[in-house]
User: Fold this.
Amino acid sequence: MSEITFTNVSRSFERDGNMFLAVDSVSLTVRDREFVAIVGPSGCGKTTCMRMAAGLEFPTAGQVTVSGKEVISPGPDRAVVFQQFALFPWKTVSENIDFGLRAKGLDEAERRRIVEHNIALMNLRGYETAFPHQLSGGMQQRVAIARAYALDPDVLLMDEPFGALDAQTRVVMQEELVKLARLNPRTVLFITHAVDEAVYLADRVVIMTSRPGKIKEILDVKAVRDAENWDQHSRIEDVMDLASFVHLRTRIWKSLREEHAGDDH
Amino acid sequence: MTTRTVRSFKPSWRETTIGTAAFFGVWYFVALIGIAPAKFFPMPHEVLAKLFALTHTQFAGATLQMHLLSSLHRYAMGFLLAIVIGLPLGLLMGRFRWLDVVVTPLFDALRFIAPVAWVPFAALWFGTGIGGPTLIIFAGAFPPILINAYRGARGVDPRYLEAASMLGIGSFKTITDVLFPAAIPSIIAGLRVGAGLGWMSLVGAELIAANRGVGYLIVKGQSAVDTPIVMAGMIAIGAVGVVIDVVLRKLEKHLLRHRKS
Assistant:
């Protein structure tokens, strides 16, 4: 069972001598093999939530647990895909994917098998010995996702992973991620500000309020997806055309717009 | 190190020739108007003739090549010692705050002491053979190597460190496989400055050298009031310094070939 639980989690920061609250009493459970996306206006603390699950930041109140254990440091059981890829520029594609496997102490044959498997999975064949700067943004993010999957983590934490990609590449990556997620479901916490993306990918979408970040509402997308059989369409544009998709998307947009309106005062 | 103190090594030949000719022209002019007695201000051709003569006749017990070889030996020892100590220490100081706090005040005071000031102690502690001069060169090369390794480690993009900790990379591996490669541009800058200062400390180092070296050659030329020899030694030091820098820049290019510029 790989669950992520946030129990009354708050996080405040100090800026210019003043404390301000970034995340306010968030309680949320990402169930085993569930794909949860958090959307919210920028600065709403959604990335902070992901970073607390990763162990890169810590709550000032409350508790974050993964697989029942309190998160006290980063680790390979909670693989992170960063928005800016964070690949090591001095390592080749294979070496980047292999780096974490070495740290796990796997033997060479096993490591090679895992690297090759993930390279095939992310369509990176032929680029094994390329360096990150020789690849496009989309390809780099494939490497970062392959690196995360290679760890065979309990949970995947994705921080706006497609945010830095161009629109076309983004769509391709979203379709591939959906295929991966349906084929081999994992517990995923996905941070994004793109509503389409959240509805398309996630089982549940969490909407956060702007400062301080609280959970405003949680929408069950999976119930709609299963009822309307979205997965029979392999193309994202076909799914996005469905009335049920449009309805959900509009609902979230309206909810988010209220937050932006609140920002203007 | 944003300002480049040395020009790209592929200048146009025409400009280089004009510059060199102008330099020798001014040299002749100054020598001819006699601001110092001719004995103390040799003409360029005298110096070049002496430089050539030194390659096949011995002065101060050796030919120019033998002196250079001896100097390079000491220099290599001092420079390598500075790398072996300065590089890991700088990286560790950049990684561990407590080490930074312990070392920095002491280091800040020590680095303002000119390498030549160590001459008496270098001789007393490590002798006049290889040990003493090595310490002087070390004193010149060590500070910039340490400071740049430290700055490189401090300036590492935190995303790399976060990615490493997420991957479960251990503390030691994080230093050797993440911090070190990420800091290479800064480290190389430190090596170049350190190589220069180490080589500049050579004359000071060889004040206490027993019987060989270009610095020793200059010291002996001075006591023999043979100014062409002193200048020939200076030219040799300058030329070798340029070669060292060129080699280090080649190394830099090689090490950074996989990075975006």
Observations:
- Chain B touches chain A at residues 159-160, 162-170, 173, 177-178, 181-182, 184, 258-260 (CB under 8 Å).
- Chain B has one domain: 41-255.
